[in-house]
Structure formats: structure tokens, C-alpha cells
Amino acid sequence: MRSAWLPTQLLLLLLLHLAPAGADEEGKDEEVKVQNVYRARELWRASSIRDWSWQCVFYGEFLLASWVLDHAPWNAYHSGLAFRNGDEKCVYDYSPTDVSSVMKMLMPEIIIQDNFSALLGNYEMKWHDGARTQLTLEWNKAYERFVRLGTISGATFVKFTDWVAKEFAPTHNAFQPIEVASVTPGGSPVLVRSSMCHDFVTDALWFFYHEGHRMQPESHVFRDHIIMYATDATEVSSLLEGLHGMRQWGRYLRQLELSLERIRQQFTFAREALIWNWRLRLPAFLHTEHRSYQVQLSPPFLNYCYLPLAMPPEASKPRAQSLVLPSGSWTSTLANLTNSTPPWPWGTMLSTEEHLDRWEVPVAILLVTLVGVVFAADSAKEATSSAQE
């Protein structure tokens, strides 16, 4: 007979694993916390593992939003991993803590003392891209579709809960929907990974693969991609320690602000904003939870895709030339470079500011000034001598 209090055990495991330390835990030794976690696991294993010998794994998804862009539909989906054993069900997923606006995850709040300080690069960026790993002890009614992927052993499920709590959840606390793909043949197809619900599912599937379980979906499953294309992405976290780097990032954000209202009206205009950035020869940046990157943009700059979810050992390869789109999805793999003009005069002013913000510029101005002063002094001296004669 299956244990009647299994959901309570799952909830206990979740609280011990995922919940942040509360006031009642302050001062507890870390070793005691680990022992409590394993004590709960052993209790679960001893009483219920026989009834959970094989778990059915499902890919769950539901529609977040839908638009009609250029007379074609475009949908955005949320996904999670669902488990079932008899009547017992649960869902793990990864979600942003603030779902009111995607732009909050991509544009930081700028904290400045005054405009002059900000112009010098003395400002702070506060990101509102928090995310959390969640466990629901039922199949949430919001999920519209479940596709069976395969089965795992009860022992693997216990290991999976530990992996979520000890490895994934502590290192994933931000939601970043953009991934950077390389346009360079022969190189790594993904330069910077995204960090959203679909990536949690992908990482979980790789965990099952390394535990010896192969997933075979009963029907096609897909995931959203927001792909930024580049020739290179260089980590520049240390760049933010200097005012010059902060000025560069600030110019990138100011350039995006020129398009912000249009992006809010039709989010696909973000590609046009990146084309402007590329034309103005401004550096582009991407913020992630643990690192910051300077991205060398390249056509087609940005794509929105709904692609097949890669089942391990297959890996996602989001190169522009390899996009295969299912019926009903929307994307464009071509960027219109001939009919894109950066806004005048602010775009041109940003480009001029970027090219003048180099140490060679003040040095050159100083040298020219010194030479001018010397020549002016010599001319004045010659004029004085001529007058005296």
C-alpha cells in the first residue's frame, strides 16, 4: 500500500531543501542542516521508496502569451517537469519572481546621484530579474499539455530532489531569457546560455541521462528561444569596476532606451534596436546572474524561435542557418540592413561620445594645446621683436 502521507514528505523535503534560511534557523551549524536534510531523505526512502519504484516523467507546458506579428502567430510558453506514480503527482519548474514585465529582466534600474556623475560612469545598476525553483504537489491547472517522456527509478527521483536543492536552486536565482549563439562555423554553437524555465528542464533531462535514463517523448515537444547572434562574447565582469566600462554600458542602455516604447508595443523591434547599436559601432552587453558579457553582434542579430527540445545526448544548436521551425511559430532569420537608420541626432551623438571616450583623445587635445601655446608664444615673441626694431 502506498504511503498516505507521501505529499507531506515531499513538502517536508522541499522546505528543508529549497526554502531560504529563516529566523528560527539562525545560528544553526551548517552540518546540522545537512544532517536534517539527509534524515528526511532516509525517512522517505525507508517508508515509501518501494511504492515509488518507477516514476513517470512528463514535459508540461502552458501558453503564457500570444501575439500576431506581421500577420503570423507567435506564442510564448512556460514549461516544467511533471512526475506521476499512481495518484501521486508533482511538478518542478523555474519561474521569475516578478512576471509583470519581461523588460525588467533585460533593463536594470539605474541609480544615480546626479546627471554629471552618471555621465562620468558613476552610477549603479539594480537588476529585477530574480527567479526561484518551485515544487508543486499536484499538477497545476495552468498546465495545458503533458507529454510523457519516459520513466526513472525511485532512487533516481530521490537523487533528483537532492540535485535540485543542493546544486540547481542555490546557483540559479535570476531569469535571463536571452542566449547568445555563434555565427562562426566550427566554433561552439552557444556562447552564453539562457537561464529560464526551459533550461531547467534541459538540465534535469541531462541529470536523468547521466543516471542512465533515456527519454523518448511520445510526441513532439518544443521550447522557446530568444537568440542573440554574435561572433564573440567576452566576459567583462571586471569592466564594471572602472568608470570607463560603466560609461560604455550606460551608452548601450541609453541606445536601447531610444527604442524602448517601440519594443513595448511590439517586442520584435528589439532586433531593430540591436541593428542600430551595430551600425553606430557601440558595444553591446548582456547581464547574467554570475557574469557580464560584451557581445560582438552579427547578423541576423536576434531571433524568436519555438524549436524542438533537444533530448540528451542531443544538444541544442541554435545557429541561424540550422533553424527548423514547427508549423504556427514565428521567426525571421534575415535582418534588413538596408532600411535601418539610427535615430538622429541622439544615436549619432552616442556614437561620437563612444569614439571620443578614449585615453588617446585627451592626450591628443593636450598635445595640440601645448603645441598651440608654444607656437603662439613664439609668434608673440617674434611680433614683439619686430615692433622693437
TrEMBL record:
<dbReference type="InterPro" id="IPR026138">
    <property type="entry name" value="CLN5"/>
</dbReference>
<feature type="signal peptide">
    <location>
        <begin position="1"/>
        <end position="23"/>
    </location>
</feature>
<dbReference type="GO" id="GO:0005765">
    <property type="term" value="C:lysosomal membrane"/>
</dbReference>
<keyword id="KW-0732">Signal</keyword>
<comment type="similarity">
    <text>Belongs to the CLN5 family.</text>
</comment>
<protein>
    <submittedName>
        <fullName>Uncharacterized protein</fullName>
    </submittedName>
</protein>
<dbReference type="GO" id="GO:0016798">
    <property type="term" value="F:hydrolase activity, acting on glycosyl bonds"/>
</dbReference>
<keyword id="KW-0325">Glycoprotein</keyword>
<dbReference type="GO" id="GO:0007040">
    <property type="term" value="P:lysosome organization"/>
</dbReference>
